[in-house]
Amino acid sequence: MGSIDPPNRQFTVTIIGAGVGGLTLALGLIRNKVPVDIYEAAPDFKSTGFGISMGPAAHRALTLIDPSISKAYDALVTTHADSPGYESFRRTWFELVWTTADKCGEVMTNLKAKTLGQTSVHRGHFLETLIGCLPPGKVQWGKSLTEMRETAQGVSLRFEDGSSTVADVVVGCDGIHSRVRQHMLLGEPIRPQYSGMYAYRAVLDMATMIEAVGERRARVATMYMGHGGYVVTYPIMRAKQVNVGLFKLSSGWEHDTWVRLASRDEMKRDFGHMGDAVRSIVQRIETPSQWAVLDIPHMSTYTRNSITVLGDAAHASTPHQGAGAGQAIEDVHVLAELLGDARVLRREHVKAAFHAYDAIRRPRSQWVVSTSRDMGHMLSLSLGTVCPGEVELKHRLNERMALLWDLDILGQADIARRVMLQHFSWIV
């Protein structure tokens, strides 16, 4: 049997941003024989960053986008099974523990997925592996976008280094401070906004964490729920270290930058009422950083003509559901399936694909942004004037996670494809 010729694509997809969204999209498009260019503002690659987590739905999508992505993730991933004796927690996302005076230290619930629970990788290591999966030289570094303008020929792009190009179509994967979004929605300025919480972040060695809270609490991903805030800990780096986040409700952010150096005394002030375990964790964090927890307002659209945005550029979320990176992966799966369809050959077809992507992905991803804020309040025992009882709280949590985790990934892409093909009928 002879080989099937690849589709005669009359367009190249220009990706702005070489983060998780941009790189996974590039791999998914290349797999589907779609030409790709990638521009990244950073001068070169640096393996920096904290851990990132993927929920079950996003984890299932990795293989569907490109098996090399799931292979890269699984080669680096930390799960509960990396701690000998804790294999039975493989399905656990987090254990939720009370810090209120009457129940301090008691486990409220063990949130479990149907298959794989808590997973995390070091962001920098994951990106480095993804870059290695691309053809050599595919990422053009030091390309900070300064101007974007649509013309009859395509999308004119100008960069800070003085270079320029004309793209057929553009996908902005350039994060919460996206310049693609800024240029795309000139009449609708969408800027990062303070979400009503700030956080302290730190990484502790596993041995230090065991000393602080004991073996089980150190090795099992835990959320400590308290009045006015909560604390999250989970193992990373194959259970050699523990990622720590301490989240505090606060109506305002009074600092000039979104990130600042903080002190242990500030943490004690914010979390000293949350029991011995939390106080012990705080005592072992020597140089904490304090971060304003941001998201972005809902946008009226994720696309305009030959331009679209995905991931944090479209729907940056607070981290309270561990779903931000996963939403980018869900975006990528839908967009790669649409643009990779053999019937998508011209720029006009891409516009229909972008419309379908927006129609399907915007409602779900914006729901995640809204419910993530709600989750922060839920974990901080601050849901209006009446705090739900334990049974109601468990019900809300399990219902929420099922909606996040049990998505029909293939079904979502199929619906988007049907929407796209309906729009094909309008193309002359």
From TrEMBL:
Domain of life assignment: Eukaryota
A single BP term in Gene Ontology: secondary metabolite biosynthetic process
Membrane-spanning parts: 12-30
Keyword match Glycoprotein: no
All copies of domain FAD-binding, residue ranges: 137-370
GO molecular function, one term: FAD binding
Gene3D superfamilies in alphabetical order: FAD/NAD(P)-binding domain
Keyword terms: FAD, Flavoprotein, Membrane, Oxidoreductase, Transmembrane, Transmembrane helix
PANTHER family listed in its UniProt record: HYDROXYLASE, PUTATIVE (AFU_ORTHOLOGUE AFUA_3G01460)-RELATED (PTHR46720:SF5)
Protein's recorded name: FAD-binding domain-containing protein
Organism: Ophiocordyceps sinensis
